[in-house]
Design brief:
Order of helices and strands: HEEHHH
Shape: globular
Strand order of the largest sheet: 1-2
Radius of gyration: 14 Å
Distance between the termini: 41 Å
Largest sheet: 2 strands, antiparallel
Structural class: mainly alpha
Oligomer: single chain
Number of strands: 2
Strand content: 5-15%
Number of helices: 4
Number of domains: 1
């Protein structure tokens, strides 16, 4: 069970991600208020899932629309999103993340 302190830290991280990504989908740029998609639920998601060594780190989280969130569940999609995160924000990846990028872009 998460402590109150841990829960507050995660909530602050989610809010930081939402602001960093400008209240639009990190990958496709669609807004939750876009008339073409209607009002859809956007979520802050781990790009590399926690069960695959993904951490609660800013560089592993993005605000995603449902379609792009589904993309993040594929190996190629995760690598693409990590690469985009690296290019846009200058994050440096090591370990498992570096291996994912190397495999996808080899």
């Amino acid at each position: 069970m998460a402590t109150v302190k841990t829960s507050l830290r995660k909530d602050k991280l989610r809010a930081t991600v939402i602001h960093r990504d400008g209240f639009v989908c990190f990958h496709c740029g669609v807004s939750p208020r876009d008339a073409a998609v209607g009002h859809v639920f956007f979520g802050v998601a781990h790009i590399v899932p926690r069960n695959h060594a993904g951490a609660w780190r800013l560089e592993n989280m993005a605000l995603l629309c449902p379609a792009c969130h589904a993309l993040s569940h594929t190996r190629a999609g995760r690598a693409m999103l990590l690469r985009e995160m690296q290019e846009r924000y200058g994050y440096v990846y090591d370990g498992e993340w570096a291996r994912l990028l190397a495999e996808f872009y080899a």
